[in-house]
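dumping this here so i dont lose it again. seq + smiles for zinc ion
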Amino acid sequence: MTSDESNLVSFPRKRESSLKPVPRFGVAGNPPNFKKSADRGESTRAPHWLAAIGLDAYEYEAVHGVTMTDERARTLGEAARAHGIVLSVHAPYYTNLASLDPGTVANSIRHLRQSVYLAAMMGARVVVLHPGWHKGHTTPATALDRCLDTLSTALVEIEETDGEVLIAPETCGLKAQVGSLDEILVLCALHPRLVPCLDFAHIHARANGRPFDDAAFDDVFSRVERTLGREKLERAHIHYYPVEYADRGERCHHAFNEPEFGPRPEPFIAALHRWNLAPTVICESRDKQDVDALLMKRLYGGKGEKGKQKGE
Ligand SMILES: [Zn+2]
């Protein structure tokens, strides 16, 4: 018996925590309650405010262009680490990786590169990306091919910026956008650093409001797992809130206190338990991102370890 083994007998090794990881819940951008608070909606103070109300995640919205300075990004990152808040960055809306115009493609790559750089500056684990539009293509398939080409080029450039930050192409709400679940899965298979951003409201809107019941969640999670593997399913980033839709897809965001709009929180939380998933869940409920994120966190309940995620 080696001395190590005898130590094991006399002093049992500290057991791994038996608590299971739990999801992080947080907000996209700066909700009205944050703007009214003593922190006055100042983005670098978001971690302080979120921790005080009991949330764990913040998605910084660079949706109108990356304008945050390096210094402010570092300040936000330090605050997030001090308050135990997981950060993500939403890249600008102007990206269209499917464009046939070389100038638009170059600008899209620049927006993505700047977003990844910003994420690295603040220590965010993921950048959320809208892939682009079908417009100008004869079929959605050629738009998707074009996205794949642009994304390959972008990944080579971005590798030099920061190889740690994940990029999450998002399921998008309009049928004219590249962003069905199938399209997102094809994109995410391209490279190890690509993981899906599952925006369930967008999936719901694209499917003309097909209800998200247990079977629908199982369908989404099993398709992700089958196509990309368990690890990418576990790293998937999630957006969750109710939505109003029309024929063309998403119309506008709503909040859980409006029972006529789906998807609803209860079956989602049940699916997280059933699939043993602990993702970051960002709530985009209209003007109630914080209220509805807290509602989901309460529904999830239980005690556990905060999800160990890349970058922690
Ligand atoms: Zn988005």
